[in-house]
Amino acid sequence: MNQRVLHHDTAPANEATQVSPGGTIRLTGAQAIVRYLAAQRVVTEDGSGTEPLFGGVFAIFGHGNVAGLGEALYQHRHELPTLRAHNEQAMAHSAIAFAKAHFRRRMMAVTTSIGPGATNLLTAAALAHVNRLPVLLLPGDIFVSRAPDPVLQQIEDFHDGGISANDAFKPVSRYFDRIVHPAQLLTALPRAIRVLTDAALCGPVTLALPQDVQAAAFDFPADFFAPRVVPFHSPAPVAHELDAALERLKSAKHPLIVAGGGVLYGRATDTLKAFAARHGIPVAETQAGKGSLAWDDPLNTGALGVTGSPAANELAHRADCVLAVGTRLQDFTTGSNTLFAQADVIGINANAFDGMKHRGVVVEADARLALEALTARLGAWRADAGWTQRAQQLGGAWRETIGKLTHAPQREGVLPYDADVIGAVQRSSARSTTDDIVVCAAGTLPAELHKLWRTGRPGGYHVEYGYSCMGYEIAGGLGAKLARPERDVIVMVGDGSYLMLNSEIATSVMLGAKLIVVVLDNRGYGCINRLQQACGGEPFNNMFDDCAQGPPGAPAVDFAAHARALGALAEHVANVGELEAALQRARAADRTYVISIDTDAARTTDDGGWWWEVAVPEVSSRPAVREARAKYEAQMAARERGDVRDAGDNGDSGDNAAND
């Protein structure tokens, strides 16, 4: 990557400002924001020094931010780099991915104009909120003075003159403030940093910035802008919560650890490995927690839930105690609350809101601190030896199955499916356990990757599945590459997501942030098409062949040609063998490289999975829908009875669960 672009110069900013005898400095609101952000530091990962908390600011300028923030960012362009993007939603996805790749220890800000520039950020704000990831959103806003009211792009509320489009950010922000005077920054900015760096509060922060306030000056205390090493806040466990957890865990014979994203964000991977080994407890991983243990660790039983492995799901179904570490236990993890409904749950989470889900006993604490405290008091206690041995056998058998699924011989004239492509990508690495970062978000691919991707180190699996947001993939890959320029970032994306949001291919070329993008073209929304049919529906409006069409018919999209038009290198391959050769060319290339391959829209990995609740119409004239409704009602009745084996044994692996 072009390091010059993201170079952080520690020299003083080039501002025509001086500290007054009274210790104040006169700055515009925008200058104060940028100067404050540039002053925030964080201890480096190896502990040897400090680096900027903010890796930069993604900006698309317009009339709501170009004169104020734009000028301030120019003044500080060496200390706080400004990166131009092509789509507001996408650049926010990139900023979020940057933070995720840094395990929430570094982050980025994003600024837009008012109106559509601002509202384009809403989807990304929701994504960050769901995934508990930090991003600072700085949308422009209307004039506080209201002198030019209504300004271009202004949303007018007929009952409240104080509302603007930015009020839409309130439900998708962990902290929201509209800055109506520069002095308010003295409280708003420290609050924003606290939320962004607090394990319990972490998520998107929105500071709405009226354009006249950005340009207005104020005498700020000079020491407000002194460089500061930011501490990260995580709670320590308290005695009575540990007591309750220990009572529940010590009475268990068949415990299971569910490792969520909090294990990675809390830097608790080594602690988890030691805890599991000492006490003989198998580990299953959520989408956000994959990589908490190396893929070949004897106690790693693989992915859990609707997209889970047969090993992890069998153990979860039989467990008498589930230790849920750093997970919010969403329905894909719990099989719509059927997978381990019979187990006692202990929720270890920095946020009690997440820890108390599934009626769990809560330990409101940082993952590492909680596991250390538990193991210190558990002493020599271990899970039942037969349980541990069974878990190791199941995990080992599943790893062998993964090898077979991803190395299956290819048949002439038969399109490959996702497992074939995943195998080719991993074989293209020079290491037996890949050092790549794989990035994905929506469709069938997250299910296949959750089951099959071999993650050798934390951070190698970067899949956004809390919000399952189509369009995150390429933009997220850019953010991951900016965070980890030394590693190959492999974006795996379906044709549907590619068509939805691909503009940051051009940004990656411009920044020298090389991506390898593998486009799996199944000619439509193949994943949701399968779900449609599983619910009794006819194929309709998902695959190109089943959509309304004019005389020219469905497009034959040339993804390679499109990517070349954006400045990338690209090619289309006909089979898995050609894909492997193309991946070697991509790894050797000097810029973003896109490879497209046609894949089977119907086939998925049969092994694993669990029931996922999708409501089927109660009334329909179509027999297929009525049959699907009867099956759905039977599954619901089984859940009510606690007969989860029946609920899960419906032949639907759940791989149909999101858009592709």
Automatic annotation (TrEMBL):
Protein name: 3D-(3,5/4)-trihydroxycyclohexane-1,2-dione hydrolase
Pfam families found in the cross-reference section: TPP_enzyme_C, TPP_enzyme_M, TPP_enzyme_N
Thiamine pyrophosphate enzyme N-terminal TPP-binding domain boundaries: 57-154
Thiamine pyrophosphate enzyme central domain residues: 242-374
Name of the gene this protein is made from: iolD
Region (Disordered), start-end ranges: 1-22, 631-660
Gene3D superfamilies named among the record's database cross-references: 3.40.50.970, TPP-binding domain
Similarity comment: Belongs to the TPP enzyme family.
UniProt cross-references to SUPFAM superfamilies, sorted A to Z: DHS-like NAD/FAD-binding domain (SSF52467), Thiamin diphosphate-binding fold (THDP-binding) (SSF52518)
Basic and acidic residues: compositionally biased ranges: 1-10, 631-648
